[in-house]
Amino acid sequence: DIQMTQSPSTLSASVGDRVTITCRASQSISSWLAWYQQKPGKAPNLLIYKASSLKSGVPSRFSGSGSGTEFTLTISSLQPDDFATYYCQHYNSYPLTFGGGTKVEIK
Amino acid sequence: EVQLVESGGGLVQPGGSLRLSCAASGFTFSDYYMDWVRQAPGKGLEWVARSRDKASSYTTEYAASVKGRFTISRHDSETLLFLQMNSLKTEDTAVYYCVRDLGGGKEVVSGDWGQGTLVTVSS
Fold first, then answer.
1. Which residues have CB under 8 Å from B11's CB, separation 6+?
2. Is A50 within 8 Å of chain B by CB?
3. Does residue B76 register a pLDDT over 90?
4. Are A6 and A23 in contact (CB under 8 A)?
């Protein structure tokens, strides 16, 4: 199974900050990676797929990069609505697996 | 507008069974891979099962933790997705989400999720 490791697990930041979350795969997954945002009590929302493709309707302050085993999600200027937990997920092979999550908190 | 509405969750004793349903609308159901994902209370996300689309003959995949106990199926004419859960364990306690294509089915990932249904396995 491919293990997905996210860092950091918690991140404290202020509105307007540039935020970067890292996701590492235990083996190459090419660009078959998605990023999700989840708020408490709600279902996750897809932000990015195929490592860097922005889902329609997602603000352009979100961007993704990487390939192979190392990926990043960047929020260029953190907004109040962005405080949430973020998950990466690969879809290279079965089983599909998620990272452990990164909680973005208010500093 | 894509809608996915789960139902069928509830309290069940260890060893019992439960069938979850997901009513889909707003898209051509038979054209899409469909997934079940679960989230234990306060924990992360875990993929559970997949049903591929009609073009892939509705073939299925399962996580090791549920293989042999859970069965994913679909009723395309009624645009319903099911998850039959047998031999339930306390560790199956989670919110179960129905998802339109977690990736791999089409070039553009849908990633649409329902609101989830809570399954509690406890005596």
1. B120, B122
2. yes
3. no
4. yes
The full 3-state SS of chain A, as one line of letters, equals CCCEEEECCEEEECCCCCEEEEEEECCCCCCCEEEEEECCCCCCEEEEECCCEECCCCCCCEEEEEECCEEEEEECCCCHHHCCEEEEEECCCCCCEECCCEEEEEC
How do residues B17-73 score in pLDDT, each as one tens digit? 999 999 999 999 999 999 999 999 999 999 999 999 999 999 999 999 999 999 999
Residue of B nearest to A43 (CA): B115
Cβ of B109 and A100 within 8 Å? Answer: no
Nearest chain B CA: its distance from A100 CA (Å): 6
For B115, the closest of A43, A99, A100 (CB atoms) is A43
Q: Do B111 and A36 touch (CB under 8 A)?
A: yes
Token pair 């999550």 is found at: A101
Name the residue among B38, A89, A24 with its Cα closest to residue A98.
A89
User: How far apart are alpha carbons B112 and B99 in whole angstroms?
Assistant: 6
Give the per-residue SS3 of A70-86: EEEEEECCCCHHHCCEE
Q: Is A96 on the interface with B (CB under 8 A)?
A: yes
Phi/psi for A22 (5° steps) reads -110, 145
**B102 contact A CB<8A:** yes
For A54, the token pair is 């922005």
